[in-house]
Amino acid sequence: MKKLFFLAFVAFAAAACSDDKEMPSPDTFVTVDFENVPASMLAGPTSYGDNCYEVMYKDGEPFIAWTDPASGLSIGIQLGLSWGASEETHEMTNGATFPSNWNIRSNPADKSGDWWHSYQNQCSVYNTASTDSANTEAGHSGSNFIVAYESTYLGKAGECTLPEGTEKTFVDMWVCNTSYDYGNITIGNAYCTPLKESNGWFKLVVRGYRAGADEPVAEDEIYLADYRSTAGFCLDKWTYFDLTNIKQQPVNRIDFHFEGSDTGDFGLNTPAYVCIDDIRLVK
């Protein structure tokens, strides 16, 4: 009997040690919080993000791409034929992920009416937890974050990529609506019907791709607004987003797509933007 008890104890202890080894420690992860993006690369000089467009090549340096030194994760503006262009160029209308620190409380005092939820304020996060006009705590942690934009007309999405041939496990991130989206979802404009009036919805779909692959291996989604029930909502603060399916395997890149109930002849009417911060990967 004592021998059986001893063997059972040894088996239990071995299993416990094995579980301890499999449990990730905090230093297993790297979090991309975008706080080390140079100020010159942040969307500007206004919350329209003038430096994300080709026209800025004439008068200033545009934002094209940035790579996080700790993780190797890159964000940037895709190369393509933007609306009405005759040759390929880096321009936000081709789909982009770009850094920003604008928030709803940093709007200039001379702006009124619907300016705060127009395309002129497309780089601002609608984060009601940010308490001042100096962009303090605009992001989930710190001031900086990224805005992901999908050109649903051109069929090109903003993305986050790792170096060619490398793969890592994307674990989770934090998301929040832009001011542009929040206003058009809740108030509407000439092109958008308020989703609350139509029992509508709007969601972000993140897709993960293995190195060299054109088709996603997994995807996860989160609703940015959903008025299909009496408990309807539109995100107005940073919200946790667990990449439940994508984190089941390492991937080389993720991209950002949008779906919604308010669609027309040219696709989605709701602006295809979202703010993202604190992307966590396994080292």
- Report mean pLDDT, rounded to a whole number: 85
CATH homologous superfamily title: Protein of unknown function DUF4465
Q: What is the count of structural domains? A: 1
Task: Please state roughly what percent of the residues sit in beta strands, choosing from under 5%, 5-15%, 15-25%, 25-35%, 35-45% or over 45%.
Answer: 25-35%
For the termini, the CA-CA separation is 47 Å
Radius of gyration in whole Å, from Cα?
Answer: 21 Å
Number of DSSP-assigned strands: 20
Low-confidence stretches: 1-23
CATH topology: Jelly Rolls
Percent of residues in helices comes to: 10-25%
* Oligomerization: single chain
CATH 2nd-level architecture: Sandwich
User: Which CATH first-tier class would you pick?
Assistant: Mainly Beta
**Tally of helical segments:** 2
Order of helices and strands: HEEEEEEEEEEEEHEEEEEEEE
Describe the main β-sheet briefly.
Answer: 7 strands, antiparallel
Derived from helix and strand composition plus strand pairing, the structural class reads mainly beta
Q: What gross morphology would you assign?
A: globular
